[in-house]
Specification:
By secondary structure, the protein is α+β, with helices and mostly antiparallel strands. The chain is built from 7 helices and 17 strands.
Length: about 325
């Protein structure tokens, strides 16, 4: 299948752990690429934020009351949290939790931005479902977002905030006695559940996991009849360099995409690259090339090879040849 340049962009999908109590399925059937409900934030305001780096080795804890930042734009109210996530290490699975504290909880909204700080997807507060407490976790609102960065993306940005509308709502929790009875197989007592009001501050936990074996393009791009993926960013144009207040975020120029030769196994010649590609990025492309060949999609493998060598890969061609020979 021929792929357009626009498909070589960041694609992302999202999943819910559970439905919010009292919210209909239609309310939580989120279409992330629909930015019509997202607040319009001037680029100058985004550039003034300090973006906290997050990697897959640590869980980022944020107390909005003490470390939140001010962003007085539109319907946004109270402090916000701003995170930067590396985008050159494969698929990202991001879990965001907001803990209930003394019957108050911060109802998060998440705006996803590409490496140029351009809004790409929006997950409103209805996306984050109530989760009962566990052995190692408390009452919380939680959602899982899966992002597959496009070729050339170096960083993604997540802006977490709440709105005036969210403050007018509440979350119904599960009474501890009910949870205990249910967990032990006893009769569940008929008692009212506690209500958590939505506040302007709270405790956030952000965890990022990666998978180097993920395909670059996900969703129904190869024949699936499911909903289309979210397309974010554009690898066909160089990415602008953005200097964050806390630290310099240098976005590398995105590679220019060109279609491979029509012959199924005639790989294009590599472009000259003065800087070596990162080991994680090299491994990411090699895995994707192997997977494409194993799936019989040589056209996709050729395009991956082309992009990898444009980024400076020295092993992608060898991986492609050995994979094709292995299928012969």
């Amino acid at each position: 299948m021929k792929m357009k340049k626009s498909l070589l962009a960041l694609c992302l999908t999202a999943g819910l752990l559970a439905s919010l109590p009292g919210v209909s399925l239609a309310d939580v059937n989120i279409v992330p690429q629909d930015l019509s409900a997202a607040p319009a934030i001037p680029a100058s305001a985004l550039q003034q934020l300090q973006w906290t780096p997050v990697d897959q080795t640590n869980t980022q804890k944020t107390n909005l009351a003490t470390t939140g930042q001010n962003l007085n734009v539109g319907d946004i109210t109270g402090p916000v949290a701003a995170y930067s996530v590396p985008a050159s290490i494969g698929e990202l699975t991001i879990t965001l939790s907001s803990e209930v504290n003394k019957e108050s909880v911060f109802a998060p909204n998440v705006l996803v931005l590409d490496q140029n700080l351009t809004p790409a997807a929006y997950f409103p507060s209805s996306f984050f479902a109530y989760e009962e407490p566990g052995v190692m976790s408390a009452n919380r609102l939680e959602g899982v977002i899966k992002l597959t960065p496009a070729l050339g993306q170096q960083k993604l940005y997540l802006l977490v905030f709440t709105t005036h509308k969210d403050l007018q709502q509440t979350t119904t929790m599960v009474d501890p006695a009910k949870a205990y009875a249910k967990g032990n197989g006893n009769a569940v007592p008929d008692i009212p559940d506690p209500i958590a009001r939505h506040g302007t501050t709270g405790e956030l936990s952000l965890k990022v996991r990666t998978s180097s074996s993920s395909s670059i393009l996900v969703g129904p791009l190869f024949g699936s009849k499911g909903p289309g993926p979210v397309t974010v960013g554009n690898t066909a144009a160089p990415a602008a360099t953005y200097a964050a207040p806390a630290a310099t975020v240098a976005a590398a120029p995105a590679p220019t995409y060109s279609a491979p030769a029509p012959a199924p196994v005639a790989a294009p010649a590599p472009a000259v690259k003065t800087e070596p590609v990162l080991n994680d990025t090299e491994s990411y492309f090699n895995q994707a090339i192997k997977q494409a060949v194993d799936n019989g999609d040589v056209d996709k493998a050729l395009k991956l090879l082309d992009e990898a060598e444009r980024l400076g890969s020295t092993s992608a061609r060898k991986t492609f040849i050995s994979s094709v020979k292995g299928k012969g």
